[in-house]
Write a structure and sequence with these properties.
This protein has ten helices and five strands, in the order βαααααααββαααββ. The protein is mainly alpha-helical. The chain folds into two domains: 210 residues, Rhomboid-like (Rhomboid-like fold, Up-down Bundle); 51 residues. Helix 1 crosses helix 2 and helix 5 runs parallel beside helix 7. The radius of gyration is 28 Å and the shape is elongated.
Length: 281
Amino acid sequence: MRRTGEPMTLSLPPFTRAVTWLLGINTAIFLVMELLPLLRLDVVAAYIGYHCALTPVDVVHGQIWQLVTYSVLHAGVMHLVGNMIGLWMFGAAIESAWGTRRFLELYWLGVVGAALTTVALSYSHLLGDPTKSTIGASGGVFAILMAFGMLFGDNEIMLIPFPFTMKAKYFVGILIVVTLAFAMMGGGQVAYVAHLGGLLFGWLYARRGPKKAMVNVGLSERYYGLRNSYYRWKRRRAAKKFEVYMSKHDRQVHFDEHGNYIPPDDDTRKGNGGGKSGWVN
């Protein structure tokens, strides 16, 4: 890709941390699924495919893990390669700009959002069939494409193998129109409804801008608050046990209500104003 007005150069994106891990996980699972039939383990491969692909009727009956697991299964080499190229070419730029955590939030929101869209529309009798299974990482990839178009809209990308470039925002716009059209026409073997879901949830996430994830912040604050309360309780409990132990040996030690040790000269019981020392939290 290049910015408008810059000379044409061919450069490949880096293999960023999360992108590399996602490429490795998807490729490894694909190779395992291809290897199982060669080892005469067709039944195992069929079992995994049946229970891990996204089938709306199974999801509503409790197999909610399919909202995630379907994204690591692919129907053939070209299906895998197409998704992984999109993940690498556009995902590396997003991860470099936003960081690993926000990139992964975007990707998995696209995966789950695409799955939820597929389930919802299949049961609305508008698009899709609740008994038809969906596989592939396209939901996450299309969320990345949407975010790329919003974040780097004026950058030009080369549409390989076509010998011309196009601004990213126009490319994403055309992608939305084509995806919607194919979804409404049925789409054959391609899950265009999932693509639409990925685009929608990618747009919802990207429009937040560079804000921190409030849910994560709230959960982190609650986790650390509970952890600190637990440690304070353990310290008070240990201090109480130590007081009892020392009293049995005719020695008096004192701790305050937080479990901090009070030296004899600072003991509030001697009326010196209650100075403290020891551990602090």
